[in-house]
Every structure is written in structure tokens, then in C-alpha cells.
Amino acid sequence: MAMQAFSLKRKLNAFVANWAYPFTINMDMINFREMRRNYPDEAIPTEDILSAVNAILGTAPIARASFDPRPLGWVNPTVQACVGKYEIPTTAWVEPKDMMVLVSCNRNIIPRHIAKHERIFTHMAVATIYCIKCPITGKYIIWDGNHTSMLCLRQGYTHLKISYIQADPNDSRDPKIILKELVKKAAICFKIINGSGKKKIDTYDSHLIMVDTGFEFECAVQAIFDKYGVIPVKNKTFKQPRALGHIDSAYEGFNKTAGKSVSKGEILDRSLKFITKYWPEQPVDAYLLTAMASIYESGFKENNPIPLDWDDELGPILCSFGEDSAKLLVQKLINKYVQSQPGYSNTLRCVIRDGILLVYSQTTGEDAPVQPAQEWNVL
Asked: How many CB atoms are located within 10 Å of the residue 121 CB?
């Protein structure tokens, strides 16, 4: 395995050498934001993306451009030989009166989900509805997209865009048997589309997309990242200095306003300033970030804003306690809490927050600017 990994890495290095601007390429990610620098308009041709994928995965299982799925349906035996029956869908616009639902291949409708999407509805985001064409009635049976159909109909749509499969017109078997096979195939595809076949967008990808397209909230968060050299990363175990994998923790910190006592972003700004000052060559620990944001927020909520010079006093104390490691600091606080509180009834974020305050008070003999919710011996 080690030899294979080394061989692949060497192969990918040779592949990237063909580009003017190198980019990250491995089994976990092809970095589009690095790759796009090779193109004047920053638009990456699909064929180039395919060549990168093939460089990682090897030769494709089917020869490039050897299969045209567009008009073929059941009249072309090549399609059946390549992919089997019921595989190639056809796209159409149909009226709702020609559509129906079979419970056997569907989940229940959730009105709350429809209401949620009505508040943010846009025609551009409407997905295609997947169906099978019933060999008995000729109706289109929805197997994925019931919520989409209800959403569109409530928006006044006269027709719905569907992608459907149908039986071989030359199949002379009982239509009920054919329908049963189609429904079974639909159930398998439903599970694929809504389960293992769907790559859910994570906060990292969402953040970069929103920043690149100019959305105010994400751009404001990114501006604070840039101010302190913080790098959002996809891999939460990334060791790069100032890397932050848990971007949600930054979003949470940005939105803290202590009941409008401070502007959005101020608490995140101070938290990252503190962390990057005392652990500049380490990744940003999300627990530490959340804890510091909570401490600063508490000061404002109690009408006792924490003085800036307290940060200068706290930083060296925490570095000493954590042996100059943010990760070790967090782990020691958790261990001390578990040792003194066998029941372990608190959340980790509260443990870290209270632990930081206790390290300060028990080291200096002075009260922290805000009081911890619980007390235990941390030294």
C-alpha cells in the first residue's frame, strides 16, 4: 500500500507539472480554486477536470465518448448491452394530472419542508422530478421529488419537468409484473440518490462558494480570517498553522452580539486575534475559539466588558498550562474536569470555557472577569 501511495503521488506530481500553476490533487480533493488560476477567465473546462480525475483513478471503466445516451431508449440494443434495462431516462414537461405517487417507493410528504423552501424559492433552484412511466395507466409515478412537485404547484406551475424511465415496448409480460420491476428499480435509485449517491455540501465548500460569489456574511467572516492569516480548510485534522477546519465555530462567533451590545464580527475578531497571537504556528482549535468567544460575550452580557489587557495577562497563563500547545491545553482541561467530576454532565464547550476561567483564577488568585458556571480544581 505504501508503494502504491508513493507511485500515485509521483504520478500526480508529474501530471500537475503540465500546468503553469500547480494545484492540490489527491483522492480527497482536486482544488478548483488553485486549478482555476491556469485559465484567463478562471473557468475550468470539463475535459480538463476529467483528465485530473482519470490521473487519480486510472483508466475509465468505459472508453471515452463511446456511449451516447441521448435518443436511444429501447430501440438500440447497444444501450441494453451496456447498461441493462430501465437505465436511460427521458426528460419531459408533463401536467400534474398525469402524475401520481406509489407509496411503495416513496417517503411521506413533510409540509414543514415545503414551507421552508417556499421562503427561499427561486425558479433556478428547482430540481428535476424523477419518475417511472406506469405500463398500465401511462401515468408518471414520482419516485423522487414529491416535495419539489408540491413546491412548484404551489408556485403556480402548469407543467413539471421530469426525468422518467419506461418499460421496453416489446416486453409482452403482464404489465403488473413489469411495473413491479420498475418500482423496485426506483426504490434502489431512491436510496442511491438520497443516500450514498449524494455528496452533501459541507461548510467549507459552502463558505468558499459564497465568498467567491460575493455574499455579505461569508465575505465578512473571510475578511476577519484574512486579517489574522486564518485559513479555512476542508480536513478538520489539518496541521497547517492557523488552519481552521470547523468553520461553523467561526460563524457562531461572528453572530455573537451579546444582545446587540456589540456589532457582529467583533467577538470573532477578538477571539481570533487572541488565538493567533499566542498559538501562531498551530491550527485554530475550534473548542478554544468557541470558548473565548463565549467568555467575551459573557462580559458584554453582564455589562462588564472584559478589558483588552486581560487578554495579555491570560495568554501566557494558558500557554504555560498547555505547554505552548492549544490542543494540549484543551485536552488537559477536559481531563481535569473528568477527574474531578466523575458524572461528566457538561458539554465540552462549557468545560473549556469554564476551565479557561478557572486556570486564570487558580493561577493568579484573582477572580476572572466573568464567573464560570461550575468550579473544579484544574491545577
From this structure: 13
